Amino acid sequence: MINKEKIEDLYTRWVKGNYAYTTDSRRVEKGDIYFALKGERFDGNDYALMALEKGAEAVVVDDDVRYKDAHNVILVDDVLKTLQCMATMHREKMGIPILSLTGSNGKTTSKELISRVLACKFNVCATRGNLNNHIGVPFTLLSLRPHHEFAVVEMGASHPGEIAELSQIARPNYAYITNFGRAHLEGFGGVEGVIRTKSELYDYVRATSGVAFVNADDAVQMEKSEGISRFTFSSTSIPADVTLKMLTSLPQVTGMIEDEAFSTHLSGEYNFTNAAAAASIGVYFGIDKKDIANAIYSYVPDNNRSQWIERGAHSVMCDAYNANPTSMTLSVKNFANAEINSLPKIAVLGDMFELGEYAESEHQSIVDMVAGLPFEKVYVVGENFNSTTTMGDKVEKYPTFEAFAVAFVEPTTPHAFLVKGSRGMAMERFLELLDKH
After folding, report:
1. What is the pLDDT of residues 31-72, one digit of tens each?
2. Model-level pTM?
3. Fewest beta carbons less than 10 Å away: which of 65, 139, 148, 191?
4. Is the Cα torsion angle 368, 371, 389, 318 positive or negative in sign?
């Protein structure tokens, strides 16, 4: 049980202390409130006294054996729930509109684009990086300050019920779901589980009379968002509130927001959808389309998210931040079929994680697909890819990145490389191989 009076007292203390708090005992500064969170390999309660010694104003713990009567210790039933409740309380007291977004692919890119567009009109607070889970969402809410006028909160999930929980914490007024893809299949139990879980955001705004921004070209999205006040966008002949058109997808996405042209630093058709969503949200909030175009162009991807990187005479599309079957398929097909300065193409693909019983079939599907695409060579790396069956000599398999690194021979002529894989594969290491040659 969460003691509301205790949360109120804690919140008052936090505000008086100029919003100072931490969950990392190593970074405690004088006046902080320390929340003793628990993880798989640590218990923040172990460091509560250390936090007090370093000058913490108070520590929030849930160990009633060690700290029952200690001074400046706030004993609660559950530190994480307390942090989440305080974040929700702060969100309510700030009283500003919140747009929450989730989806299988493109969450962080969409969040960055949407935030930049909304910043043309509002003082925006947005999720930092991809802090989008049960701890990251409260962190974002607690970063709200009186000068903020709008918030954009990214939500991630790997199991059913997580988006519903995060929605109850953030209480969004607006919702956007990027897509339903084949990601985290192990935790969701299949694509239908993905759709149900991501749609929990729609369920929340439907129940609270919120607004959903929906891609009208996605029939599943339209079905799952029925009964909600919707603002739609489309790049086809389907009727929608905003009509957009893609002009190019590689090397950069360009397009039209109705009668206004826009350019991006992004690549791939999937990123056109991310830009289109941000543009339509801007139109909904009455932002001038020229300002929308400038805001979209201002976003430059980093951290191995659809980055074009030059390595000597080679061009590298480094999209190695993460991967799942849907994003891998889209990236590979888009790259293979695009004209990239007449360069021959090579794909370097790493394993996709968290697929459980679907791992074998999904990796085999990717290998079967690339065999029929116009690549000069495809390198697949990791235990899952190494277990696939390949035909011909176009596809080369390696069980580890280290084995691939030993065997790789850099082409002597300029090539275009696509590099993609799950975060745990760290496929951006391929750039170091080119640096060494």
Report:
1. 999 999 998 888 999 999 899 999 999 999 998 777 766 778
2. 0.86
3. 65
4. negative
